[in-house]
Structures are given as C-alpha cells and as structure tokens.
C-alpha cells in the first residue's frame, strides 16, 4: 500500500471521529457516546452555531514551489474563519443557515451567504463579493435551485429520501454504533472535568467525553477502521433505504467490498506502519458536552498534524479548531429569513441571462 493510500485511510478515520464525536450521553465514556447517538435521532429541531478556524496551513512541494497563486491562497486561508448560524426543523422540513466567510492576509475579505432549504428546493442569497463583479439587480436576490428539476436535467429521478434528515440520522446512528463497538473505550475515550473543558457560556453539561488519537495509537486506529469497521459500514450502506440516499449503486458497494476483501493485509499493515515515518500528530482531540437530557449540546475539536514525506520531500502542516453548539433542542423554532418571496427570487436561467458571457 502506497503512502497516498495510507494518508487517505488516516484522513477517513480522523474525519469519521469528528462525525461520531458529534453525537454523544454520567456513564462510562464509550457508553455515553453510544447512548447519545440514539438520542441525537430524537432531535427534531434545534438552533446551531458552528465555527471553523484554520490556525495554520503550510504546504510545500514541487507543485507549490515558486507558485505565487498557491502562496496567496495559503496566506488567505491562514487564520481564516468559517461560521454557520442556523435553525433546523424536521416537520415540515425547513432549514436556514447563514454562512460567514472571513479571509485574512493580503487579500482579506468577509461576506455572508444566507441559505434556506425545504424538502425540494434550495435558496442561496447572492452576496456582494469583492473582485467578483455582479449586476446590481442580481446581488441580494435568492438563487432558487429546484432539486427535482436539476435531477431531471441530469437524466436522473429526484429522490426526496436524499434530503430526509430523519433517515440520515438513522444511518448516522447505525454507522457510529458500529464504530463504537470496534474501538476500545479505555484507549480512545475518557471523561473530562466540565470545569476544564472550556465550555462557552450557556452550555450546561453533565458530562464531557473526549475522543483522542495520538502518535502511539493512530496506526492501530487506522487498522481497526480498515479491517474491522469499514466492511461492516459497507454492509450498512448496502441496505436499499441507505444506498439510494447516499447515491451509491449496488455494484459500486460490491466492488468496494471486493477490493477490501482482496487487499493484502500484510501490505495494508506495512503501509500504515510507514505513517510513523512522515506523520506527526501534535494534537487530535474532540470533546463532546452532554446536557442533562442526554443530548450533545456542544463539540470542540483541536487538530494539529504534520506530514513530511521523506521521499518526495512534500511537507504539510495543518492546525485548526472546530466548534459546534446546539440549543433550543426540540423546541418551536423561529425562522428569521423564512421562505423567500417570489420578488426576491431568481432562477438559474435568469441568472445566466443577467451574467451573459461572464457567467
């Protein structure tokens, strides 16, 4: 197994832990996580606040050497912030989000993008973006995307299940419980004193659970994911109700399972073992705060990793923080944007006409 595949597997396991840590319930830490995955399925409405901050990003390779554009991009992304404030309800299905983008560096810029999603339509407010000239009568309009029409234009049939939040939660629950079963609770999970968890004001937690990956256990964690958890996850995705929702065909899943079963375990182990030669985990920890009703009310992740390939001399350093906060769980929600009115909406065809050749 080559280094790129090893990094892919590492990325999968680290990314999956972010997802699983987002659904956690005072018990044994691992049991608390498992209990709260079920409770997360009972979240029929909530307010949310999310924030991603890229503390550091450094990439050096043959491709980026003397590449001014790449340097500018990395400069903009360093200390960049992405925020998402939103409201969700399951019945009738409605979600509204405001995504804030704040880029730093020599080409700093900030703008917000409000979005509204219903069962069949997505509305995206067209922002005024520096360096991207847009007609005045287009800015602040809501671009409406009809999911059914888009599917027909693509030669497929729109499946409402693909946007079924309840079914998505059910899938997430099955996948995460499968992961929980494979990982040792004493090695990967532990309780954090609520006073030491740096919880934001307003978060009242009865327990904080941490999932932690270190240089010492990352190889084992990746092997568990590849050899034990992934085959079971593919079986879950193969179920008819999930396969269509995630947009996979039976053939694609069967081929993935075949490739996995035919993989040389010694080769996989050798490739994962090579991680220690070019991967350094300075910190990878995810704290999940569980409230008195056993809902995951807050999550914070700190990721600080370095990759230095001794053969290609490609180097990468990434340090970032991610925070998610949920409130007003299962309460009546107030939508500030609402469904955009006809006069505030523009279709894709109208946008193309307005933009002309520039589009």
From TrEMBL:
InterPro entries with a match to the protein in the record: DUF6612 (IPR046720)
Signal peptide: 1-21
Coiled coil: 239-266
Highest taxon listed in the record's lineage: Bacteria
Record's keyword terms, sorted: Coiled coil, Signal
The protein's name: Lipoprotein
